[in-house]
């Protein structure tokens, strides 16, 4: 196997992994949006990012198709199920909005790292046709991480205020 073959194989595996991670992101964010009541700005930003994530999945589908392959149904299903389970685990917590904010912030940085790695593989493997799509997805993930970072103080203060008014169950969503 030549070095170019190895890079191609690794790049395709990375694209499939990113595809599964984006499917997982959808399964994490969608239940959150349906439960948010007291944090409309968070719900609005999550809805926007769900749309962005669907666009990222479409871009990954196109990149995979350019290599005559597609996402891994098994990886997609496995990570989607784990994302759903994570969302469910937080839904029973009194501080759901806080835990979701932490998890979303960490998850965005995981995705940022994945896209940065894919960009390195694209450069080293000569897959320059993939660079614009990967950079667009990276930028969207960086924007979302920045938004969460900037809004965490607001969410935390609102949570504390709602908790003081009516206890933890009133403050969660």
From TrEMBL:
Q: What is the official name of this protein in its record?
A: Uncharacterized protein
Recorded hits in SUPFAM superfamilies, A to Z, give:
Ferritin-like
> What PANTHER family does the annotation carry?
PROTEIN YCIF
Name the source's superkingdom: Bacteria
> What Gene3D superfamilies is this protein classified in?
1.20.1260.10
Any one Pfam family here would be: DUF892
What lineage is on file? Bacteria, Pseudomonadati, Pseudomonadota, Alphaproteobacteria, Sphingomonadales
């Amino acid at each position: 196997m030549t070095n170019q073959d190895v890079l191609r194989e690794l790049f395709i595996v990375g694209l499939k992994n990113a595809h599964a991670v984006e499917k997982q992101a959808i399964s994490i964010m969608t239940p959150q949006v349906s439960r948010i009541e007291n944090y409309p700005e968070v719900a609005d930003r999550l809805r926007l990012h769900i749309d962005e994530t669907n666009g990222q999945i479409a871009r990954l589908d196109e990149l995979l198709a350019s290599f005559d392959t597609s996402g891994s149904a098994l990886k997609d299903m496995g990570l989607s199920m784990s994302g759903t389970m994570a969302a469910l685990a937080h839904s029973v917590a009194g501080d759901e909005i806080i835990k979701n904010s932490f998890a979303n912030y960490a998850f965005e940085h995981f995705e940022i790292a994945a896209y940065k790695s894919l960009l390195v593989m694209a450069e080293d493997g000569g897959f320059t046709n993939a660079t614009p799509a990967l950079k667009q997805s990276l930028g969207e993930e960086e924007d979302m991480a920045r938004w969460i970072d900037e809004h965490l103080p607001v969410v935390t203060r609102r949570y504390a205020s709602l908790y003081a008014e009516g206890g933890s169950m009133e403050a969660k969503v």
